[in-house]
Amino acid sequence: MAHVQPLDAPRPPGAVSGWGMSLFQAGWPCRCVEARTDTVNYPGVIPKADWRTAVKLPESLDFLRIKEARYRPLPLRPIWPGFAINTVFYAAILWLLMFGVFTTRSLIRRKRGHCIKCSYDLRGAEHEACPECGVEVS
Ligand SMILES: [Zn+2]
Q1: Would the pTM of this model clear 0.70, i.e. be above it?
Q2: Distance 105 CA to ligand 1 centre (A)
């Protein structure tokens, strides 16, 4: 079994490497969450990462045989400008998906001279309301 060096342990005599910090950011299209870590990396000792703003994946995922699995973070600290931009970006996509289809269909029906609600053909006669569904014709 490998030895894991605790973060607050004194540096072993003769150790040449030591402490480091890693920054892990995620998000698309803008980076919107991050995690920082302090890392101990002495020769002959497995590096131990202390993620301060993330949830570390459980060691039960070791069966995946991903060497870095125990040190892969799920970042939790928001990066507010990126978070706001991503929120607006995904809200716009959702809005287009929800309302874009209906708006486009209504525009096409109006252009063809049909009722915007039921697509009844209103050409050739003066109507104040659709005779099929009762929607006002403008
Ligand atoms: Zn109609």
Answers
A1: no
A2: 13
